Every structure is written in structure tokens, then in C-alpha cells.
Amino acid sequence: EPEVTQTPSHQVTQMGQEVILRCVPISNHLYFYWYRQILGQKVEFLVSFYNNEISEKSEIFDDQFSVERPDGSNFTLKIRSTKLEDSAMYFCASSAEDLYNEQFFGPGTRLTVL
Amino acid sequence: GNSVTQMEGPVTLSEEAFLTINCTYTATGYPSLFWYVQYPGEGLQLLLKATKADDKGSNKGFEATYRKETTSFHLEKGSVQVSDSAVYFCALSDRRNDMRFGAGTRLTVKP
Fold it and tell me: How far is CA A15 from CA A12, A80, B28, B48, in A?
């Protein structure tokens, strides 16, 4: 069964450093998403991406964040200058172009900012 | 904007007890509704979904019915098992294609 994959599973970085989180969505999917979950808290929507551009973004997704689909298979989330409060689990998801909007989630990348 | 309100946890039950986790939503239009489950140390897995009013989603003994009149999508299971211990998230998605999650309800089932 096709699945969404994410790398790395755990990333540790120093405050102020740039990080890139990588995702490989399901191959025939057209919509891509990033979510985050701070430890013990709710899953929060960050951004959705379709047709090579951002279609929706939340208030969390400020200028420090960017997304890219560099090569037709990977979907990346970049945090330019990490802050302590960026420590969270980051989930990538993808969905096919249908009316039901079911999203398939990857296993997540745990980001720890020291 | 769209939002989901979920029953506060944690919920602790004995094995074979009946489970209800309440979920209500606010949305413009006609969203699809979902329950996701997160087992310890893992990512989110889709448990069940419903795409229109009066639809019932079901999987692994869990059920939820899309009630437009009460804007609810309560999760139920007749007899829980220890292996059902997890965090359960109610979510909705509309044509804008972003998923809004509830706060999550942690369920612990004791033998």
C-alpha cells in the first residue's frame, strides 16, 4: 500500500540554524500539506500546496517558513532560523484530487531545537 | 472559520466498556469529517470518515455518524480493548483542503 514517508525521523538543531524537513508524498497525489504538533498539544495546520504554489497557510506559517517541491517527488519544509518554540513533531500529508479530501499522513519528523 | 471542539480527556475505561468521545464542529459549507488515531510514538492514522450528512463511518468496531442538525460526529465503540489505548482526533476538511483538528482525547483502557 502506498504511503507518505518523511526524513529524518528526528532532527536536533541549534537555535538560529536552518532546517529542512523532507517528505515524499504518495505518487499520484496532487495536494500536499504540513502540520505540526507541539508535544502534548493539538495538531495544527501550517500550509497546503497545490500546482506548485501555496494554496492556504495558517497564521503560524510566517516568513521563517517556506515550502518547496523541488523535483516532482519530494516536498520540503524549510525553517530559516529555528527558535526554541519550533520544537515539535512535523507531519507531512498528501491527498488526491477528489471531493472527499482524505489526507494520508506520514510518520512525522520530531524537531528538537536546543 | 472552521473549527472542531472535542471532548476533553483523558478518558480511562475498563476493558469491554462502552466508549463515546464527543466531537462538534463549526463550518461553512459541507465539510468531510474524520476521526484519526495516534498510537504512542506513532503518526496519525485515519480511523474512519464521513463525507455527507447522515453518513456513518465505521472501522475496527468504531462508529461515528455525521449529524448536520447537531453539527456533531461523536465516536463510539461498544467494547473497548487495551489495544485501543491511543489519542483520538476529530477533524474536518472542506474544499479549501486544509484539515482542522480537535485538541485530541487520550484514551487509556485498563485490563
Answer: 10, 10, 40, 39
What b/e string do you get for A20-47 counting C-beta neighbours within 10 Å, with b at 16 or more? ebbbbbbeebebbbbbbbeeeebbbbbb
**Average pLDDT, consecutive stretches of 10 residues, N- to C-terminus, chain B (111 residues):** 86 97 91 91 88 94 96 97 95 78 94 94
CA A83 – CA A44 distance, rounded (Å): 17
Q: CA angle at residue A42 from A68 to A44, to 5 degrees?
A: 25
Mutate to test the interface with B, among A101, A109, A110 (most CBs of B within 10 A): A101
| Closest of A14, A23, A16 to residue A90, by C-alpha | A23
Task: Select from B3, B97, B100, B105 the residue whose CB has the most chain A CBs within 10 Å, as the one to mutate to test that interface.
Answer: B97
